[in-house]
Amino acid sequence: MPVNVPVDDPMADTEWNDILRKHGIIPEKPPSPTPIIEEAIAKAREEAHQNRLENKDLDELDELEDDEDAEFLEQYRYPCKQRMAELSTISRTSVFNQVYPLQKPDYSREVTEASRSAFVLVHLTSSLGTNVESRLLTELWREMARTFGDIKFCEMRGDLCIEGYPDRNTPTILVYHGGDIKRQLVTLRELAGTNTCIRDLEQLLVDVGALKANDTRLHRSGSPARYTSLPGRKTMPTPNHAKDDDEYA
């Protein structure tokens, strides 16, 4: 017959409770969380100390020369200098910052010739307001132009750019550089169709070399693996080339 042993507080550190635990009458006292908490606090303090120079600019880092190890400071100075140089380059080359509407007589000057000094992307739009992909790309084009001012974004109706160009092939993206077409996408099916987003277009820019994969303007919530090569497509005629209808199939 079990014996009821009086226990005031089974969690208390008393000699009586130790005897009861030894004989299995009451369960062992769980380990104190204090050491775990103290270890976590110590680790957090150590990480905070190691990262104490994060987000400081060059002037702030220079002020710490007397308090910090020179080699340790230089680990933060170098990327900071790189970032400043990158921002300076972006600021100097960001001369476009808008979507440029094109007219056929100006195409050679505004696109082909302009691509000798910068990447130029042309969106051949649909003539129909019901083309969802074309309308989507028009909106994305505006945002891309504002973000990447060193790249020229242009837009023109496909059938006005190339006579007889089928509306089913719109939207079409043409990427020019060095006076030539470097990449073309007919509709958005190579990206994500009607789900195409800014990151998909950024991927295209990285793929053609218009942007570096570590460009700080890129959206960072996606995986770096997202920036991979896109499949190529056959060359299509520019406004100055002769063409047959079957070229657009």
Strand order of the largest sheet: 1-3-2-4-5
Straight-line N-to-C gap: 92 Å
How many helices? The count is 8
What is the chain-wise order of helices and strands? HHHHEHEHEHEEH
Helix content: 25-40%
> How would a crystallographer describe the biggest sheet?
5 strands, mixed
Rg, alpha carbons: 32 Å
**Residue runs with pLDDT of under 50 for 5 or more positions:** 221-235, 241-246
Mean pLDDT: 75
**Structural class assignment:** alpha/beta
- Shape annotation: elongated
Q: What is the number of E strands?
A: 5
DSSP strand content: 5-15%
Structural write-up:
The chain contains eight helices and five strands. Helices cover 37% and strands 11% of the residues. The chain is elongated and about 100 Å long. With 249 residues, the chain is α/β, with parallel strands linked by helices. A hairpin with a 2-residue loop joins strand 4 and strand 5 (180-186). Residues 221-235 and 241-246 have low confidence and may be disordered. It has helices at 15-22, 34-50, 58-62, 70-93, 107-113, 132-147, 158-161, 198-208, and strands spanning 99-101, 120-125, 152-157, 172-177, 180-186. A five-stranded mixed β-sheet has the order 1-3-2-4-5.
